[in-house]
Amino acid sequence: MDIQKGNFTWNGKLTPVPKEKFNSIALHHMAHPTADEYEVEKWHKGNGWVGIGYNYWIGLDGRIIEGRGLNQGAGVENHNSHIISIGFQGNYEPFDPNVKYLTEMPQAQFEAGVWLIRHLKAILPNLKYIDGHCRWNSTSCPGRYFPLKKMIDAAEKDEPQEPYYDIKGHWAESLIRQAIAEGWVKGYPDGTFQPDKPITRAEAVALIIAAIKQLPS
Fold first, then answer.
1. Which domains does the chain have, with CATH numbers?
2. What percent helix, strand, coil does the chain show, rounded to 5?
3. What is the pTM of this model?
4. Helix, strand or coil for residue 99?
5. How many other β-carbons are positioned within 10 Å of the β-carbon of residue 164?
6. pLDDT tens for residues 21-62?
7. Chain centroid, CA 135 distance in Å
């Protein structure tokens, strides 16, 4: 996975924050079923802000977009000088019966959230708290159906989270999952499997050795 640069514009200068001053990560949802990062940027500029308030933003498709990055955000009132805010596309709170909401997060978005939290944990030396926006302000954000505990627990684990989300819907998905379960193949360090990428000679050797080990002695 990687962090993409957003095509944002800024109505002024951002305020850099030294890495050691960030001690928390706040997770947010958009409380809107479809708004993308540029729609959110318009909202925030409409508030009179310099630009999009989130330090990072994650789409339903798993795209990770840099907003303010390691500059002061505008996502948690009275706490922005020490908090990294991550915004997630989608609405995870049934606050209005006429507004569509999600009861389950798409796997690609979930895994992108776990990856980004882990990345931030690795570069922020004094990080202590990872929680929903509601920890610091009186709000329902990130919503009752946001997988808050599940995401934080997955990010806190030392072992990689279940990878291979990029095989979902692939014609060979069931065969690949069987091979993974039996230990024949593994994913790449970035957490993907890349099912249509050509096999290397090293991978071919590893697969042959795994197959030999499965033969009866």
1. 3-156 (3.40.80.10), 165-214 (no CATH)
2. 30, 15, 55
3. 0.74
4. coil
5. 22
6. 999 999 999 999 999 999 999 999 999 999 999 999 999 999
7. 19
